[in-house]
Amino acid sequence: MTSASRNKYFIATLTISIVLAGMTFNNLPGPMTTLSVQVIDGVVYNFADYPYLSHEQIGLFNYIDSLVTGQGYGSWNGWNAPEEFHGLLHYVLAFMAYATASFFESTPGYRTSAYHNFAYSLIKRMNTTVAEYGNNSIEYTEWMHPSYNFVEYYWPDPSNSSGLYMGGFRGPANIMWTGHYALMMALYERNFNTGLMTDELSWFVADWNNSLTTDGYGHADADGIWNTGLIPCEPYIVFVQCNSIPMYCTVLYDNLYGTHYFEDGMWDYGLYFINNVMQDQYGLFTDGYYTMKPMGYVQPTEGPAQPFPGLSQDRYIRDGRPKVSSYCNGWALTFLEYIQENETRHDYPVFLEHFGKEISNDQMYMLDTYNNQRGFGTFDMLGTLFTMALAKQQGDFHTLQRLYNFVYSPYNKIWSQDGRSMHFDTSAALPFLQVPLAFGSLWATTPVTVRMLADARPTEFWSYPYISQADDENIWIYQAVWDSQKSAFILNIQVDRPATLRFDNFAHTPRAYSGGAAIAELSAVGGGHTLTLQPGTYNLVIR
User: Fold this and answer.
1) How many other C-beta atoms lie within 10 A of the C-beta of residue 111?
2) Which residues pair with 504 in a beta bridge?
3) Are the beta carbons of 107 and 479 closer than 8 angstroms?
């Protein structure tokens, strides 16, 4: 099967899965995306061969867009984020960025300010500081909150100020923020090619390299500062899932800029460590390895003492076995597949076997840990959401559908009065879920995987015709992609009110075709070309 055939199969199968999943909801799925076949001068354009978005997916994006760009970077109105969830906010922003990166890549020829401003605002919100935004900042909620007390740490003795300082928000020992922040910037540059983020992104990658290949004082050290080849989240513990983000980011950075950090061994010892030391009895990843004893740590009254350094011990079975979690494995396996494909493909069915919980023929979820199969909580939900993205990436649409049914079937879809945005109503269960379920659905159902986004776009991509400006609030873009083999732009659009689109990079004045016949010639305006459309739904070939 050719690469193009595999992509067509992936898109078609995923679409069927999404439709079937939608039919289990308390209300009906939205209108299907119309996909025509057109023949122009003997050339066949089958719209089903190109990636596309649904009306509901765009509605979900419009909902989260209103929260991100509709208020200041330090405001959280509508996010349903009470104090007890303060430590999750930066994760919400990060994974929203990853989900929407796949959303943007689904219509790569549509790159107006609507998407550009959203991605930029999300990065700015992720980098809010106490100095500017006080207790509403990510620096406070993620690092300086009194419940953490991370700012006073040193290495190797956490309380000895003569050691290497570990307590900075921007690193070195805060990979649960620096990794996500850097990857958000890397994906921004991959998708929009602005150069705005390159210098800061480069600083973080170089800082990680210093942490992983030296002792922190300029002396070469193969296992890095913390003797694991990994970087801590909290200053005293490393996690596979958290380090999978900078690993993936390093590969993407190399692909974007032609550097060789990964190839030169920056993460070699870290990969050895997670694949040989941080393993459970089934060969799956364990959840945490202490590099030193946290300040104020109290040993459990039952079972063996927690070793320092050593694997974090399970909190349910107090016999010294390591802590395990589905969200750790679902997350890590997804982001590591580009780097170590064989390991992810081998571990995926083992992961489902030991963490999967059967509900019915059409529903299942992921246990937080196979060591506790009672109840359902936040981490069971997290594990299930991450596994949906992993199942999509594996092409396992049957499992994806069952997980999706379990997560989304209890919640009604609520459309805004103007019909532009949609969310899942979780107010009767847990209001905080409303935002994560919106972008979680995008992450699980768009035709683009995490693995796909690790490759930089080819240089010639940036010379392809694309939509650079539009009356975005009046339109729904289901398909927008340049077919370089047929030299034609594929546009699938619904127009609610009269709208004008500007195209850049056409070397000539193109024509728009519908049903195989020319319907309009675009107008040359200021170095680009514009097309004005009246209300309606169009499958257009522009060439």
Assistant:
1) 19
2) 466
3) yes
Identify whether the C-beta of residue 204 lies closer than 8 Å to the C-beta of residue 178.
Answer: yes
- Domain membership of residue 83 (yes or no) is yes
Neighbours of 129 (CB within 10 A): 15
**Among candidates 72, 321, 97, which has minimal Cα distance to 197?**
97
Does 438 lie in the same domain as 489? no
What HEC string does 410-442 produce?
A: CCCEEECCCCCCEEECCCCCCHHHHHHHHHHHH
CA 161 – CA 155 distance, rounded (Å): 9
CATH number for position 233: 1.50.10.10
> What is the C-alpha to C-alpha distance for residues 283 and 350, in angstroms, rounded to an integer?
8
Residue type, 480: A
- Give 10-residue mean pLDDT values along the chain (543 residues): 42 44 44 92 98 98 98 97 96 99 99 98 99 98 95 96 97 98 99 98 99 98 99 98 99 99 99 99 99 96 96 95 98 99 99 98 98 92 98 99 98 98 97 98 99 98 99 99 99 99 98 98 98 98 99
User: Is this model's pTM higher than 0.85 or not?
Assistant: yes
* CATH code at position 516: 2.60.40
Q: Which domain holds residue 339?
A: 53-457
28 residue type, one letter: L
Do 290 and 308 contact (CB within 8 A), yes or no?
yes
* Same domain as 452, residue 341: yes
User: Is residue 32 included in any domain, yes or no?
Assistant: no
What distance in Å separates the CA atoms of residue 370 and residue 385, rounded to the nearest whole number? 17
Distance CA 401, CA 389 (A): 11
Question: Which tokens is 211 given?
Answer: 């942490």
Cα-based distances in Å from 452 to 105, 370, 449, 517: 9, 30, 5, 35
Residues 356 and 473 in one domain: no
Sign of CA dihedral 536, 484, 339, 355: positive
Residue 468 and residue 111 in contact, taking contact as beta carbons nearer than 8 Å: yes
Clarify whether residues 408 and 537 are in a common domain: no
- Name the region of 80 (left: φ>0; alpha: ψ -120 to 50; beta: rest): left
Query: Distance between CA 223 and CA 424 in Å, rounded?
Result: 45
